[in-house]
């Protein structure tokens, strides 16, 4: 390879031929440098040129670019937008501006003609009855034709693709050029709904291959498959912004559209269903026999439609055989669409899904094995429960992985109407006393939640003396709970009238520990119940401290009251002064005694109330101590 040597470093004794060769090489090198410098101009120069031509691209003036047709692909903005990106992005603004200018001109014309008509009315009062109606009719005609003419002109302007055709004629590769976000001009046109521009781009791709229609459609499909940095195609953009005409163009012009998911896992059909665009959903389903419908979190378009409570889109998806398979498809949470509809109480959606496949009521979640009836019960959706039981009554017998039936879930809902519904429904009669895996019937679940115990107590079908695997009955759980409520103690006393007594299965050979299953029901920490513990009332420490503090306060107040009362009693009536004719101190002493008596009475009533509460709790636990310690005395 011949190397270029700088002239100043060349030896003077060098052969003349070598000098001539050097001059030739140097000239060739300098000429190539000029070509390279001319062909690879800096981005700053192209950005500067683009700034001068930016408004020409906005207005669609191709004459300003005739001197730059050889470098149209290098005229970009700082974000790599080409002149096509700029032209398509600003098309809406340009269209609105032209339309506004036309309406201003049209209003001026109408106003001038209206004034001329009104002036003609001054010709004579006799012709007024004829001219006035004609004037009104003329104004209406002008308004209608003027508006239609404005629309036609706007349509002609909108359909004008001269700038696009001129640009692509001189630089066909510009249609594939992407900006810094990876968006082609087709992405921009699809986002803004420029259907005419999209048609021109598709026709350009097809015409590039001449009469070979298959290659032309393949090129158009390849252009549509170009994804940006978020993996969104032009179809994604059209669906996101509900551009129905663009979606119809894509589906009719291009067969086997790419329905791939973007970076977020969203397919075009899923986006349309999630956003409630029923027209777009119908267009996609009508053009493709099996479009992809997956979405984030393993969900499908049917999941999205159900979560939106959209009956129209749900019906469209259920009419499509391929999408109907999603009825039994569970997401990452393990829920099928019916589970969401039942949990949120979407009754019309539940009816639609069950009409499509009534077996869905028996399909459990993959995590927890809960069916739709369980989810409706725990979230207090009684109407949904009625619908599920009406179409699939056998599902009431199913249990989850913990052995919970629908009555357990109703008890856990802490809703009075839900508990009443399951207790008064004949379908659940056999389930009221059914135990879960820990041996706890639904009655124990009511104790754990601490709500609506009276509903269960008044029901004759409830087994009030049922025991769990820890040999704890209903009363045992009530008395062993920390912080027993007053209502629960009242219910406990009521249970005694039904012959229920606590501690019937306590062991006589030593201490007994509550099992883990009991801890799950009551939520208390595990501890031991011994003979000594049974003889000690389980009174809250906070209540004991409160009583001690109240006792000290009572003593102080009683001392003050006694001091005032004795002082008033030993004071001489009339005071120590002889002046005046009225013994004022007599009134003061009487008032002091009255206030003292009233204060004593108030504190006495308050103390009686506190003592009564304490004695009630002690009495309850004394009875529990007696019945629980009876086996130890045998």
UniProtKB/TrEMBL annotation:
The lineage of its organism: Eukaryota, Viridiplantae, Streptophyta, Embryophyta, Tracheophyta. InterPro entries: Ankyrin_rpt, Ankyrin_rpt-contain_sf, PGG_dom. Residues 7-25, 506-519, 528-543 have a biased composition (Basic and acidic residues). Its main location: membrane. This is PGG domain-containing protein. PROSITE patterns: ANK_REP_REGION (PS50297), ANK_REPEAT (PS50088). GO terms for cellular component: plasma membrane. SUPFAM superfamilies: Ankyrin repeat (SSF48403). ANK repeats lie at residues 181-204, 333-357. Residues 545-581 form the PGG domain. It holds the Pfam family Ank_2. Keywords: ANK repeat, Membrane, Repeat, Transmembrane, Transmembrane helix. Residues 27-42 have a biased composition (Low complexity). It is found in: Membrane. Residues 1-43, 502-543 are annotated as: Disordered. The chain crosses the membrane at residues 121-145, 553-572, 584-608. It is a multi-pass membrane protein.
């Amino acid at each position: 390879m011949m190397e270029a040597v700088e002239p100043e470093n060349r030896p003077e004794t060098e052969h003349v031929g070598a000098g001539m060769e050097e001059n030739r090489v140097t000239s060739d090198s300098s000429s190539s440098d000029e070509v390279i410098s001319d062909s690879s101009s800096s981005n700053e120069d192209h950005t500067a040129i683009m700034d001068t031509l930016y408004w020409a691209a906005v207005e669609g003036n191709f004459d300003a670019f005739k001197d730059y047709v050889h470098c149209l692909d290098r005229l970009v903005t700082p974000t790599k937008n080409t002149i096509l990106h700029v032209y398509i992005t600003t098309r809406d603004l340009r269209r609105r501006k032209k339309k506004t200018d036309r309406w201003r001109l049209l209003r001026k014309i109408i106003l001038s003609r209206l004034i001329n008509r009104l002036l003609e009315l001054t010709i004579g009062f006799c012709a007024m009855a004829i001219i006035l109606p004609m004037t009104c009719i003329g104004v209406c005609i002008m308004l209608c034709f003027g508006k239609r003419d404005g629309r036609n002109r706007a349509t002609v302007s909108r359909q004008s693709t001269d700038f696009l055709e001129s640009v692509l004629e001189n630089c066909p590769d510009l249609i594939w050029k992407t900006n810094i976000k990876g968006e082609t001009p087709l992405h921009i046109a699809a986002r803004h709904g420029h259907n005419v521009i999209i048609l021109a781009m598709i026709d350009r791709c097809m015409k590039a291959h001449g009469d070979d229609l298959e290659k032309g459609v393949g090129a158009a499909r390849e252009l549509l498959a170009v994804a940006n940095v978020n993996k969104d195609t032009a179809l994604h953009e059209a669906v996101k912004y509900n551009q129905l005409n663009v979606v119809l163009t894509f589906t009719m012009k291009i067969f086997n559209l790419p329905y791939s998911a973007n970076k977020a896992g969203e397919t075009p059909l899923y986006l349309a269903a999630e956003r409630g665009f029923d027209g777009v959903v119908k267009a996609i389903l009508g053009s493709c026999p099996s479009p992809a419908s997956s979405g984030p979190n393993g969900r499908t378009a049917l999941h999205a439609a159900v979560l939106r409570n959209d009956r129209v889109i749900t019906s469209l998806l259920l009419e499509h055989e391929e999408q109907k398979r999603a009825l039994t498809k569970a997401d990452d949470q393990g829920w099928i669409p019916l589970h969401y509809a039942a949990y949120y109480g979407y009754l019309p959606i539940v009816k639609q899904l069950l009409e499509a496949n009534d077996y869905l009521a028996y399909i459990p979640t993959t995590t927890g094995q809960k069916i739709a009836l369980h989810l409706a019960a725990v979230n207090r959706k009684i109407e949904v429960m009625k619908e599920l039981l009406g179409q699939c009554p056998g599902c009431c017998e199913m249990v989850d992985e913990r052995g919970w039936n629908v009555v357990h879930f109703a008890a856990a809902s802490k809703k009075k109407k839900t508990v009443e519904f399951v207790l008064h429904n004949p379908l659940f009669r056999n389930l009221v006393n059914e135990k879960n895996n820990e041996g706890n019937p639904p009655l124990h679940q009511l104790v754990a939640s601490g709500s609506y115990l009276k509903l269960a107590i008044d029901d004759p079908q409830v087994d009030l003396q049922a025991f769990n695997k820890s040999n704890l009955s209903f009363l045992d759980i009530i008395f062993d709970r920390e912080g027993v409520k007053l209502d629960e103690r009242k219910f406990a006393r009521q249970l005694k009238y039904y012959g229920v007594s606590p501690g019937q299965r306590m062991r006589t050979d030593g201490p007994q520990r509550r099992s883990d299953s009991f801890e799950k029901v009551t939520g208390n920490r595990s501890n031991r119940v011994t003979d000594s513990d049974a003889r000690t009332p389980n009174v809250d420490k906070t209540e004991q401290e409160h009583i001690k503090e109240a006792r000290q306060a009572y003593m102080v107040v009683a001392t003050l009251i006694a001091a005032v009362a004795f002082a008033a009693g030993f004071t001489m009536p009339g005071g120590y002064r002889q002046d005046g004719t009225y013994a004022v101190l007599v009134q003061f002493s009487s008032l002091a005694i009255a206030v003292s008596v009233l204060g004593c009475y108030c504190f006495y009533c308050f103390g009686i109330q506190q003592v009564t509460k304490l004695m009630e709790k002690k009495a309850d636990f004394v009875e529990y101590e007696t019945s629980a310690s009876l086996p130890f005395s045998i």
